[in-house]
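Appendix C reproduces, verbatim, an entry submitted by the partner laboratory led by Prof. M.T., so that reviewers can inspect both the input and the predicted structure.
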Amino acid sequence: MNMKVFLTGGTGFIGRQIIKGLKDKHDLAILTRQDNLKKEDFENIQIYHGDLSDKKGIENIVTNFNPDSAIHLAWGGISEGDYSLKQSIINFEEGRNFLRGLSKTNCKKIIFAGSDQEYGRREGKLNENMPAVSINPFTTAKNSLNNFGREISKEMGADFYWLRAFYVYGLGQKKGLLYNLLKNIKEGKVPEIKTPFSKHDFIYVGDIVRAFIDLQDKKGGGIYNLGSGYSTSVRDFMEITYKLMEINYNGSFIEQKEISDRWADISKIKREIGWEPKISLEEGI
């Protein structure tokens, strides 16, 4: 069914690929601060120039488009690694402004991007029944926005989805392990690996994007993990990358005192949504 979908963060790593998957199926609008967008990347998309900090402005934009579905990816400071209190407060307030704007529309589906960091410092298999833990300004802002989103969606009669993405990697990323490995290889440098034996749940961006797209046809709402369902050490990820590039790694691995190991329990989203990852680690890299 064709729907009107409004997207924030559409110029980012994940957002650009969600646009590619949605624009041929739905009427799509994005919000951006950028003025120099490449037209070929955003053809047949309604572009609104605005700022989520402008409460009245975002309300006018969202009510003008009047979406059936909304996706919120925007989160300032991520690319710079800014998880400070100041930036977290800004992100919370901007997300709240977006929700308030949506409350003035007929939107019936709201999808927000969460993070595995909301589980705090827990190790092992992480499932959605575990209570969220606020361990820093970033997780406090995410948890607070999740709570606010659920409550305002109830008032609207809208389905509210909160998707906790684990360690996302893939095409178009400008930071992260894979980006840094390939950058070092290109420059002929040996990468410095600070936590080679820690394990993460690496999930390819294409699988993440497919979850956001699949949810356009679902009803219900809830919190869902987005991960591969298993953990891989940083060292193994690196060795796979070097093997695929047909390059020998000549560096050494430092001794690591504390080793973390966590991964997503994805049984809930498999059961209720029918989503599961399709891209293997080797294929994704």
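The chain has a mean pLDDT of 93. Additional entries are available on request from the coordinating office.
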